[in-house]
Amino acid sequence: MGSFFSKEPVNRPTQYGASYGSPEKPTRKRKFEFQGATPSTIESKTAFSHPRTDEKTTEVDAAPDGNVHRYIVTCSTIFWCTRKDIVKLLSKVDDMPPYGGLHKITKWDHFFIAFPNEKCAKLGVDCLSKNEYRGELWKVRETTEHSAKRMRIDDTVARSRENTDTMAKGVCLSAADVTAKWRNVGYEEQITRKKRKWANALQLVTKNLHREIRKEGRIQWLDDLRRSCDKKGSPECCPLVDVLRAEKQGERNFYRNKNEFTIGFSPDGCGMGHKYHVSELTIGYALGLVRNGQVFVSPVDENCSTTSKASIEVAKCLTPVLRSLNMPPYDKRTHKGYWRQITCREGVRTGELIVSVVVNPFDKDDTEIEKRTTREADGECRTAVVEALKTYFGTNKKLGVFWQTSNHISAVSSDIPALHLYGIEGLHEEICGLRYRIQPTAFFQVNTLMAERMYGLLGDLAGVNKNTVVFDVCCGTGTIGLSLAGRAHSVVGIEMNESAVEDAVNNARLNGIQNATFIRGKVEHRIHDAIKEVPGDKDCVAILDPPRAGLPMNVVAAVRGMRSVKRIVYVACEPNNFWKNALGFLRPRSKAFRLEPFRPVKAYGIDLFPHTDHGELAVLLERNGVQIA
Length: 629
Fold this sequence. Notes:
Residues 1-60 are annotated as: Disordered. By secondary structure, this protein is an alpha+beta fold.
């Protein structure tokens, strides 16, 4: 991650004795080029003069010593100063040595500055400490990249604490506000709101398609649709036929089969400037983004109506255990601490539960003795966690415990190795009459019961029968294709991730499915080879269930280029992004899209995530009957 200390030098080319564009202008060969450096001094590391031209000039060796010395200068009267203002002030400081990496933003009562070596740093600190602005002396202290970032975050935290009307600003006050912010909204009202969102997603297709094809030609159905619309704005590209609602208790409440808990400090009793205590350690959900000043964690409880009850029990079980072990949670501001995250995955129908604990092994600046102490404590923590879970759940639940270590500064990666500590080594789930083995880090729909109904809807929407070949594009572990294999002639899944393909093959074998084939590779490279194996009299349909960002356009072009595919069912987990891929399927022929375009026929809303503002949108696209004007 880049640092704001690695800025261009403060001085301009004219200060080097060269005009803009002159070949004498020094090239940027280092992370820092400090103010006052001439071309010769940068290359030869010899002494040079300060850029000031008055009689108070001083010569200092500006050769970097390998350690860039960073400092923070604080003064309340520079609150409204910009970076240019600070540069102007520093130009008036007597004997100011070369510096770089100056960073100042309006409404900061501080700025950051860096010096090339220790000699410059000592002289610079001495000069800055004697300087004053509007009657207040500057306070200087050494800092680092991380502490600079922490100060910015702390400022944001302090401002957020001063805001008493937090709910009006959209700030979450509890874990339930993070995970189930519509929990107090009636279910019919939730569906009404989501219908508006789905309708807006369909309108975006019409709006952007009309705008995009102005120079490419006209599409007859689009013109007819726009003429028939009697309201302002763009009409929906196709009707929203119905909504797949979460009717049953297990579909609507406590439905998530995967829950990721953050381990951190509770906001209670932990004000800014106070020392954090392990007694405040909490397992729950972060109240917001660190960059927005939300660094605390709210405990998970029964008000989190999307979190499974078993996962809530895990958090209740482990909270006192982790507190008793006297190891601090990971602090995202300082990047120090031990406990990071707990992930719970469960089989709703099998009753199996896997708990994965993620820790930070040790800090990179720790001494060997500190690292050895952390390793010894690590073993004690593993034993305590396993024994606590075994005692709490007993023999009533099939339990597995995994241990993961991650020293990533940002979010924990999903593919870090997992060490098996106890119990079952893999999770099983049953859906659509099939049994799936799910790896601890593999993707699986979080609402098992609604996913089962959604797969049935996709099969109906695609018109799958014994004469149908289903292409499961970007199939992942193959759950959609395998769930439709019993209704179809055959299923062909294409996926780039090798481990996901292995899971799909193993799940097909586990269920005795012989009419499903899974191919590893990029869709645009393998799809045409796959379709050559399909008999010419078969009805071909493609089902696409991409990530939130959608599919790359070359994948869209490859799917559209499958001549035998007459229907596409597109499942958009972020409906407002659907139009980006839809344009590739619907626009007129071109060099990039050679075959006939598709046409949207109908759409269904799928309430896969009750009590939240998220929902999936399934759209049927057909190639037959499209008229190009």
